[in-house]
Structure formats: structure tokens, C-alpha cells
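## Example pair
The file below holds two records. Each record gives the amino-acid sequence first, followed by its C-alpha cell line.
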Amino acid sequence: MHHQGEENGFPDSTGDPLSDLSKDESCKENCTCSSCVLRAPTISDLLNDQDLLDVIRIKLDPCHPTIKNWRNFASKWGMPYDELCFLEQRPQSPTLEFLLRNSQRPVGQLMELCRLYHRADVEKVLHRWVDEEWPKRGRGDHPRNF
């Protein structure tokens, strides 16, 4: 009973600070008008756009000696070497697998990886999606999740 009383004492503190924190972090890190006005899109949001996914996979799946690809991105975000090798052997797109495993990250962080690895081609596609397609989709609400 005492525990229930404590929970009833904190209903306001669970809602506001969390939403304020996440909004402040995205603004500090990478403030773009569309991200500030609307909920910043996550990778799971772009997974719902098959056309966009196809373009990203075409750009990041191939293995080139001088061009950074999905493997560099996944490694930078902490994927172990054994897992990288495992994904390479699977029939499914390794880029898609990498995105699925990082689906809760903001698209802005993926764009930062593109800048880090000089993948302006991928960054441009993501930027266009965030600026043009994302605002049309949910108006900041969570669109249907699959």
C-alpha cells in the first residue's frame, strides 16, 4: 500500500521531464527546423519507406575498398566483428539488418555517420526524406508501426 501511495505521488514527474529531455538533446546535438517542429524521426520511421530503404541499401550494401559502407557504420556503432561477418553471410541486406538493430536511434545520428564517412550521397537522400517526406507522414505523431 505504501508503494502505491508513492506511485500516485509522482504522476506529473514521469511525463514532462522525459519529453523535455529528449527534445533538448536533439536540439543541442543537431538542430534542424523540421526536427524541432516535429518529433525527430527515428530509423524505425524510415524503415517504413520501402523506396528510401531500397536507395540506402543500393548505396551501402556493396563492398568497395575505398568507399565506406554499412560495415563501417555498424562498427562505429559498436557491432562486434563476429556479428559483422555473420551479417555479411546472410542472404538479407546487411544494411537492412544494421538499420533494424539500430531502429531506435534518430535519423540525425545516421546522417552524422554519413558525414563522418564522407557519404554525402546517402546523407543527401536522408536529408531530403527528413525535410520533405517525414513531415507529410505523421505530422509528428507516431505513424503505424508496420
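Second record, same layout:
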Amino acid sequence: MLQLHRMKNHGSVNGGGRPSTDEDQVNEDEDISSLAISTLQAREEEIARKKMEVKERVELQLGRAEEATRRLAQIWEDLEELADPLRKEVATVRKKIDVVIRELKPLGQSCHKKEKEFKEAMEAFNEKSKEKALLMATLMELLSESEKSRMKKLEELSKNAESVH
């Protein structure tokens, strides 16, 4: 830009020291315009080149970041597996345990009911056994008395039969 300014100010006298004409002025203005355009184009090309360099660096960094992200994701998965390598097997066994617990509940209730029934039946059995024992004792006593009574009667009849002879 400074060069362009110098050329403009320089334009009133031509290189040979003679005064400039309109044609010289037009040529000079075209030269200045041409120089300005080429300078602008050079700057645009420089900006585009730097933009591409920055873009390439950013893309490279993005690639590195993506690779780092993949590696971190793999490390995370490895850590998860490390925390519980038998996670699937454990989950399967836990599900089976839950099923068995659900099956045990009604069985436990049934068992409790049957134990209660058994206990009641056992108490009834024991009461009847005691009653039977008492009745057997009473029967034995009655049979014993009956036998004594019959023996006594037999002795009396025997004595009476002897006295009749």
C-alpha cells in the first residue's frame, strides 16, 4: 500500500524530468491499478494459503482427538469389564435366584399350612391315644373284676356242688 501511495505522488513528473501528459497519467494510473490488483490478489492468495494451513492443522488435531476418543472409549469398556468380568453370568444366576424365590414363597406357605395340619393331627392322635390307653386300662380293670367275680361264683358253685353230694 505504501508503494502504491509513493507511485501516485511520484506521478506529476515523469522519469525523464519532463512534465507528464494525460496519456502518461492514464498509463501511470493503469500501472497503479494493476499493481494494486496484483498486491490484493497476492494478499488474498496469502490469506487463502494461511487459511488452508490452519484448516489442515485443525483437521489433524481433530483426527488426533477422534483417535484419542476411540482409545478412551475402549479403555472405558475395558474398565467396565474389569469391574465385573462375569457380569452376564451373574445376571443370569440372579434371575434364576429370583425365580426360585418366587417359587419358594407358595411352597413355604404350603409347608407351613401342612406343618400346622400335621401338628393338629398329631395332637388329635395323641389325645385319642391317651383316651385309648384310659379305655384299655378301664377294660383291663373291668375284665379283672369280672374274672374275680366269676372265679368267686365258680368257687361258690363248686362248694355248693360239693355240698349237694
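Notes on the second record: Residues 1-15 have pLDDT under 50 and may be disordered. Residues 3 and 20 are 20 Å apart (CA to CA).
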